[in-house]
Amino acid sequence: MKKTTISLIALIMALSVCTLLAHDMWLVPHKFHLRPGENLVLSANTGMDFPKSLSAVTPDRLSLFKLVGKSGQKNLIDFKTVGNSLTTQIGLKEVGTYVIATALRQKEIRLTAKEFNEYLLSDGITNIYELRKKEGILDKDAVEYYSKYAKTLVQVGDSLDDTPIRPLGVLIEIVPATNPYSLKKGDELEVKVLYRGKPLPQAELAWSYPGMGEEFAGSTVTDASGNAMVPLQKSGPYVIRLTYMEWVKKPTHEWESYWASLTFEVN
């Protein structure tokens, strides 16, 4: 095999690894606003072009899939793969705002030093890149364990409630300070990032909406209290996301990352 062919194959493989890892996970309802008694069709999507999905989450990866409303919560267990999405149908009879959340178990990925550094810079984890630079380990390959956490907000009827502003207690989550369905295009939404139940400062948040491709519409960094303001620039589906990473120095791996997303609709 020619040297140029080998190099091309190696480049494609490297890009494939980084692209696979860079997939966000979103919960995407077929409708964000429903009538009481209407069935919600919900998809768990993975990709880089919100809300399109490149591959379906496999059911064995799920560690959490639940529905939370003002009257309580229940686990969702009836889901199936449809095309590139993992989907479920939920009957919602009571008016109010619902939160649906899912989480994926940790998974290992091994990256060369070059792949890992490029991934850190492209995904807004520049603090880890700077840490590796400071420690003199930019040339060290990486073993990372990553897990993902996604939430979506669905409104049934016209009666709003405070369900979205209550933390669910998952490992990492984006919590709105107010119900987003009380806001409209042109407003700002304040959010708090919680990690292990505590505010996470200096976390880089990004937001986007359909039509942006693999680019984000904007980004910001949480303050010392884990808070940030997100401008609601456009009507329609919206996503807020982040990736947080720690240097854990365990025998099996050195890095752990936690991905979070929140989807809702802007009026």
What would you say this structure looks like, in words?
This protein has three helices and 18 strands. It has 267 residues and is mainly beta. It has one domain. The strands form three sheets. Strands 2, 5, 6, 9, 10, 14, 15, 17 and 18 form a nine-stranded mixed β-sheet that branches. Strands 1, 3, 4, 7 and 8 form a five-stranded antiparallel β-sheet that branches. The model is unreliable at 1-20 (pLDDT under 50).
Short description:
By secondary structure, this protein is mainly beta.
Present the secondary structure layout.
Layout: H1 3-21, E1 24-29, E2 33-34, E3 39-47, E4 55-56, E5 62-69, E6 72-75, E7 79-82, E8 85-91, E9 96-111, H2 113-122, H3 126-135, E10 142-156, E11 172-176, E12 188-195, E13 198-199, E14 204-208, E15 218-221, E16 227-231, E17 236-247, E18 255-266
Parallel strand pairs: 2-10, 10-18
Antiparallel strand pairs: 1-3, 3-4, 3-8, 5-6, 5-9, 7-8, 9-10, 11-12, 12-13, 12-16, 14-15, 14-17, 17-18
Helix pairs in contact: 1-2, 2-3
